[in-house]
Amino acid sequence: MSIEFEKYHGTGNDFVVVDANEYVPDRGAFARTVCDRRDGVSVGGAAGDQSESVGADGTLFLALEPQFSPPRVVMTLVQPDGSTAEMCGNGARCAAKWAGEETGADTIMLDTQAGTRRAELREGEVTIEMGHPSFSPCDVPLADDRDDSLLEETVAGLEVTAVNTGVPHAVAFVEDVNEVDLEAVAPEVRHAEAFPEGANVTFASPRSDGGFDQRTYERGVEGETQSCGTGAVAIGVTARRLGKTTAEEIPVFPPGGRLDVGFRDGRATLTGPVEREFEGEVTSTPDPRHVSEA
User: Fold this and answer.
1) Per the residue annotation, which of 35, 88, 94, 138 is the catalytic one?
2) CB atoms within 10 A of CB 255
3) CATH 3.10.310.10 region(s) of the chain?
4) Mean pLDDT of the residues in the chain
């Protein structure tokens, strides 16, 4: 059995894209295998040259429904640890780009576990609606004994603000994100009791141009990614909530490039480039028993 795939990235946040019509008996096992940064998919096949793009930050299983106007896509994101995520900003933008290439449409409707999102494709960039960010304890979610928002409070030694932008984020504003040792600081916050479902941990530092630099430790990836779309939105909405900016358009700079966070009638938007890297096929379905033992 072989499974065809394509590889996309949005500002370095990269995804293996699989048409949902492909038979994949265990999506979690598949994602753990193809996303592996040492032995996952690459231009040269499995275990390719380490200078190439090897592995991914997640696998997008996309069910295209081209009969609708605009076309619709049902998006399921399976992360490198085999878990699923309700929403992913850059993943959604990659999914919209894929659907646009399949249909020729410049507007795509995406059905995600966090709700339906509208995407617009313009000159190499994709803008995705990100819904209504929420600081509510039940939406983040926060621990059951909490009835108020978590704003600029210390969690596991780090001052953070908790917000849900499709997935939960703990946002910390620091002087310089490049001075933060993410691997030392972020895991304890990610697993803190305050976040019963875990949290992505996003660091932001202000720039002279009015934007913010970003670094994010992602839940499910269990490490830093080159870009995180929900994290960029978390920075934008939290900066506005805490009075650090009043801008309606906020540039955010993760290591992989630039993202622009906007606000329309209380809803957030995320804009940035998307690129198709390569296509290929996995020659056999990963054995779930073998993968789970690794």
Assistant:
1) 88
2) 16
3) 3-130+274-293, 153-256
4) 92
- What would the pLDDT profile of 157-177 be if each residue is shown by its tens digit? 999 999 999 999 999 999 999
Active site residue: 35, 94, 138, 228, which one? 228
Cα four-point dihedral sign 206, 119, 86, 276: negative
For residue 269, which of 96, 144, 69, 26 has the smallest C-alpha distance?
96
Segments in the chain forming alpha helices (H): 27-34, 89-103, 182-190, 229-241, 288-293
The domain defined by 153-256 folds into Diaminopimelate Epimerase; Chain A, domain 1 (3.10.310)
Q: Is 35 noted as a catalytic residue in this protein?
A: no
Residue 199 CA: distances (Å) to CA of 47, 213, 253: 31, 20, 21
59-90 residue pLDDT tens: 999 999 999 999 999 999 999 999 999 999 99
pTM of the model: 0.91
